[in-house]
Recover the amino acids of this structure.
C-alpha cells in the first residue's frame, strides 16, 4: 500500500523553504517520489506512518504539519467524481484540501465563502480527510482558503486538482506494474 504525504505551509512566500527533490532522494529507501514544489510526495514502499513521520521530522529543517493518506483513501475520494457538473474555466481553480484525520460532516453543501452573491471560494463536497472545492483566481480568494480550517475545526493543506491528478496517475501506474 502506497502512502501520500502533504506538508502544510512549506515553500510559501519565502517561509519554511526546502528542496523537496533533495528530501525525496534522502528518503529513496522508502521509494519516495516528489510531486512539485509544495511538499507533496508519494511513498511507494511499505512503511508505517509513524516511522515516516519520524523520518520527516528528522530531515526537515523546520516543524510542519504532515497530512498522510493511503492510496486507497485518495483513490476512493477521487472516485466520487467531486467536480462532476463543475465547468472548467480559466478564472476558476479546482482544489483539494487535506486534513490529518476525517472531517466532521457539514449539513449543507455547497458552501460559498464569503457569501452566495460574490463568492470567492466554494466547498463542493467532503470525503473523509478531503475537501473538494473551487476558488476564483483573485488574490482575496487565497486568504479565504484559511477560513476552511476554522469552519471545519481542523488544520488543512491545499493542493491544486492538477497536482492530485498527477498523484493519482502515478498511483495508477504503480498498481498496474
Amino acid at each position: 500500500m502506497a502512502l501520500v504525504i502533504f506538508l502544510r505551509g512549506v515553500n510559501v512566500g519565502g517561509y519554511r523553504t526546502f528542496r523537496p527533490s533533495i528530501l525525496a532522494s534522502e528518503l529513496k529507501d522508502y521509494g519516495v517520489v516528489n510531486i512539485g514544489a509544495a511538499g507533496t510526495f508519494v511513498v511507494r514502499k511499505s512503511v508505517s506512518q509513524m516511522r515516516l513521520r519520524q523520518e520527516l521530522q528528522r530531515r526537515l529543517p523546520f516543524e510542519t504539519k504532515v497530512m498522510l493518506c493511503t492510496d486507497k483513501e485518495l483513490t476512493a475520494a477521487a472516485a466520487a467524481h467531486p467536480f462532476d457538473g463543475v465547468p472548467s474555466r480559466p478564472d476558476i481553480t479546482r482544489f483539494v484540501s487535506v486534513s490529518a484525520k476525517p472531517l466532521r460532516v457539514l449539513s449543507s453543501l455547497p458552501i460559498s465563502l464569503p457569501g452566495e452573491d460574490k463568492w470567492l471560494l466554494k466547498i463542493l463536497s467532503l470525503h473523509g480527510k478531503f475537501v473538494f472545492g473551487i476558488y476564483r483566481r483573485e488574490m482575496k480568494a487565497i486568504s479565504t482558503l484559511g477560513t476552511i480550517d476554522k469552519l471545519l475545526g481542523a488544520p488543512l493543506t491545499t493542493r491544486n486538482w492538477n497536482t492530485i491528478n498527477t498523484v493519482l496517475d502515478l498511483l495508477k501506474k504503480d498498481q498496474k506494474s
